[in-house]
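Figure 2 data, in text form.
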Amino acid sequence: MATISEIIKKELNLEKLADKEKKDKWVGDISLEKIKEIAKKVDIPGNTEEAKIRQIIGSCISYRITINGKDPREFKNFGKE
């Protein structure tokens, strides 16, 4: 099974994720709907679908990828509202 980073890179047609030299630069944008689709595909044992979505959102923070054009930290409480 592909890792979250591999799936995101493929979905966004990126060669690489975050650039360590340019920490203020975002490398891509993904929709929340696409994240939900990825969560259904990825196999993370013991996690609910909401927990998988939050994990992917956390990965977007690390990978410097915005969600719906916004900072992914705005979505980190997904499903907890």
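Caption note: The helical segments are 4-12, 32-41, 49-63.
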